[in-house]
Amino acid sequence: MSLSRPRVTHIIMSLGTGGAEESLRKLTSATRDEFRHCVVSLGAPSYLSRQMENDGTQVFSLDVKRRGPVALWQAWRTVQRLPPDVLQGWMYHGNLLAAALFKLCARKSKLVWNIRHSPQVLADEKPSIRVSLRMARFFTPHLIIYNSHDGKAVHANMGYARFASVVIPNGVDPERFKPSADIRARVRSDTNGHDPAANEPKWVGLVGRFHPDKGIGHFLRAVHELRSKNLQFKALLAGPGMDAGNHELVSLIEEVGLQQTEIDCRGSIEDTSLFLPALDVLVVASVREGMPNVLLEAMACGVTTVATKVGDVERILTHHERLATAGDAHDLADKIAYALSHLGVQAEDRAHVQRHFNLVQCNAEYCATYAGLLA
């Protein structure tokens, strides 16, 4: 262990918009007085990587798509030149790369994996993920950090029970994510000349990247069903790939019987804390999930939430009348309709997040975990 602050080197495939990437940024920023964080990303420089650099984190964006094997060599050189006390992979591909770097040049460090997924049926996963899961069995990390109890249980059944592990749930900063009439008015004023005095429709949104796991098709089918019942509201999609330039998304909207003009496709949202308070209902329609950050964030903002029963969602959202069966668009529509009839700042939900999923508590658990490994 270093005489100064221990160095924790994080290996991740990219620093695009996503729950894991945002969790990494929050962790490195909040614990920089206790640890020297170094992030090795195989992706290109991004908004998030620049944010992390502004926070004082050392970031290496190696852009493997453009530079190919040279980027992998640079990852090896970086770990060799800046020996870590803790070498931590993030998600399956990052975990595998971290394990390889550990074998090659970082054997004196502690190897940690961070798993944030709950694969229910391996056949449904991408081939690259299935390969990563199989190859990971040839390595032995000192510790696995899961962000959900469901994820830990699923991986235990896949042979990961032999590894030491701990569950550290995601954390939210309740001072950053909170109800805000000002943000609500500002976001809505940017849309079609919003008039606060007008009797405007309610906003129902799904915020996440365009990915099959997010259940976007089920959300759109639920919207179509509610439209057919003459329930009036504004439907929004926001996140990477959630824009009119995504032809696959446009086709999906039309396939379920909606017009493109019936869905407000916002695209990427750089700071969700400046968007979520504008929603009346936040929907998590995922068919696979560990612990969705956006659900915690929306609840911290006091937004009425609807979510599918996947991963650890039932530990977060305890109101069963707003919990839907994953993959069931009809049930999802019923739960959205219920939520629309029970709007207003959800103080109880916000208090639950503050009590059990506070960012300060999450970061403290990471610090204690690292310290325990290095003791």
What's the gist of this structure?
The chain is of the alpha/beta class and 375 residues long. The chain is built from 15 helices and 13 strands.
Question: How would you describe this protein?
Answer:
- This protein folds into 2 domains: 182 residues, 3-Layer(aba) Sandwich (Rossmann fold), CATH 3.40.50.2000; 176 residues, Glycogen Phosphorylase B (Rossmann fold), CATH 3.40.50.
- The protein has a 7-stranded parallel sheet with strand order 3-2-1-4-5-6-7, with helices on both faces.
- The chain has 15 helices and 13 strands.
- By secondary structure, the chain is α/β, with parallel strands linked by helices.
- The protein is globular, with a radius of gyration of 21 Å.
- About 1% of the residues have low confidence.
- Helix 1 links the parallel strand 1 and strand 2.
Features:
375 residues, alpha/beta, Rossmann fold, seven-stranded parallel sheet, six-stranded parallel sheet, 13 strands, 40% helix, globular
Helix content: 40-55%
Low-confidence stretches: 193-197
Proportion in β-strands:
15-25%
| Largest β sheet strand count, sense and barrel closure | 7 strands, parallel
By DSSP, the count of extended strands is 13
CATH topology of the largest domain: Rossmann fold
Placed side by side, the strands forming the largest sheet appear as 3-2-1-4-5-6-7
Radius of gyration: 21 Å
Instruction: Compute the number of structural domains.
Output: 2
What is the CATH superfamily of the largest domain?
Glycogen Phosphorylase B
CATH class of the largest domain: Alpha Beta
- Please tell me what the overall shape is: globular
User: Which structural category fits the helices and strands?
Assistant: alpha/beta
* Alpha-carbon distance between the two ends: 9 Å
Q: What is the N-to-C order of secondary-structure elements (H for helix, E for strand)?
A: EHEHEHHEHEHEHEHEHEHEEHEHEHHH
